[in-house]
Structures are given as C-alpha cells and as structure tokens.
Design goal:
The protein is an alpha+beta fold. The chain contains five helices and eight strands, in the order αααββββααββββ. A four-stranded antiparallel β-sheet has the order 1-2-3-4, with helices on one face.
Length: 253
C-alpha cells in the first residue's frame, strides 16, 4: 500500500514539470520579446537622436552661411555707398568728370582766332594779325588778338576757358597812321619771331606760357614784342620784324 502511495506521488510531480517548463518558456519568450522591443526602442531613440542632432547641425551651418552672406552684402553695400559719396558731387558728376570737362573746353590760340574772325565776319585771308597772345585780365586768362583789314582795326579779348568774347572794339584804319599795312607782307611773321625768342632762351614752346606776340612800331622800326614765362621767370624780346635780329631782351621774375 505504501508503494502505491509513493508511485502516485511521483506521477503527480512528473505531471507538474511540463507546466513549469511551459511557464518558464513563456517567461523567457516574453522577456526576449521585451528585450528585443527595448532594443528596437533604443535603436529608434538613437536614430531619432542622431537625426535630430544632424538636423540641428545642418540648421546651424545654414544659419552661419546666411549670416556670412548678409554680412558680405552689407559690407559691399557700405563700400559702394562710401565710394559713391567720395567721388560723386551733388549734381551727379564726379571729380574726374569735372576735370575732364574743364580740360576739354579750354580753347587754343587758333580757336580764339577763328572765334574772332567769325564774329567780325571775315576770313583769315582778309586780315593781318598784329597781336596774338595770352594775357591775364582781372584774374581771367584771355587771348588778346589785334588785326586789321584795309579799312578797319579789330581788337578782341577772348576767355581761354570757354571761348566767350569778353571785350571787342573796332576802329577805322587809316594807312597813313601806320606803316604796317604796306610792309606787313615782308615781315618774318609771328611764328618765326616766337621761334627766334624761344631758341635764344633755350626752351621748347611746350615748356613755356606765351603771354604776348605783338607787331608794332618802335621808333619807326617795325618789331615783334614777344613775351613768355617759364616757371616764375618772365622773358621779353624785341625782334626786328624785317630781318629777325634780336633788338633787345630782358629776363626777370
């Protein structure tokens, strides 16, 4: 009887083992699933964190680039504004433009002659020039021109900077009042008189400022009075109009 009891007990214990193993298996499987889920969640969190970090870094780089571009644009605008302010006047012209215009409008001696002749209604072939040169009147640089025809003498002062006529006068010409009319054709001419004076002084025409070149009578002798400046030194020459001899000259400051 005792044997039967023990055998029955052993059978009950054996029957319990599979259930226990099943419970343990279920717990292991559940734990594995939980661990796997946790791993997945961790991986997901890590990916999210990585993605978020990359996004933040990208945004920071973009912001830095944008700020740099804005700063560069602002600097370029400031430089452009400064350059415009430095070089542009209130009338919209620049200092260089103004200097170029001033230089381009200054007239030559030949231009002044053409202006005077046009105003008088004469051609160059119809007149004889007795005075041509540069002078200063009341602080204004002018060309002084004197010429005559068979009947009239003309005097002109023409502003060098713009060619405007500042002063002009005419006077009836009487041949007996001067011997220039009958003998002017035999004189050496203004250009030759000027060349003689410059050669004596040792200068090229480009290196001096011509002030006067006049044909006039000096004690009954027709002469050219040539005056020019080199730096602060003034040169004055009296040259015989018929033969080109230097009658006298002086040098002063």
């Amino acid at each position: 009887m005792m044997k039967n009891f023990l055998h029955h007990k052993e059978n009950r214990e054996e029957n319990r083992k599979p259930a226990t193993r099943r419970i343990v298996s279920v717990l292991c499987i559940t734990g594995a699933i939980a661990v796997a889920g946790l791993g997945t969640a961790c991986a997901s969190n890590t990916a999210d964190t990585t993605t978020t970090g990359t996004s933040v870094e990208a945004e920071a780089v973009t912001d830095t680039a944008d700020n740099a571009a804005e700063n560069t644009t602002a600097a370029e605008t400031a430089n452009t504004t400064t350059e415009t302010t430095d070089t542009t006047g209130t009338d919209g012209t620049t200092a260089n433009d103004t200097a170029a215009v001033a230089e381009s409008t200054e007239i030559s001696l030949a231009d002044a002659k053409a202006i005077a002749l046009a105003d008088a209604g004469l051609a160059a072939a119809d007149v004889t020039f007795t005075t041509e040169g540069q002078d200063t009147e009341n602080g204004t640089a002018v060309y002084t021109l004197d010429f005559y025809t068979a009947t009239t003498e003309y005097d002109y002062e023409i502003r060098i900077s713009d060619g405007s006529i500042l002063e002009k006068s005419t006077e009836a010409f009487i041949a007996g009042d001067s011997d220039t009319a009958s003998t002017a054709g035999s004189y050496i001419g203004f250009d030759e008189a000027k060349s003689i004076a410059l050669a004596n002084a040792g200068f090229a025409e480009a290196n001096v400022t011509l002030k006067k070149n006049i044909l006039e009578s000096d004690n009954g002798i027709m002469v050219y009075e040539v005056e020019f400046c080199h730096g602060t030194t003034e040169y004055e020459y009296t040259i015989n109009a018929a033969n080109g001899n230097i009658v006298e000259y002086s040098i002063g400051s």
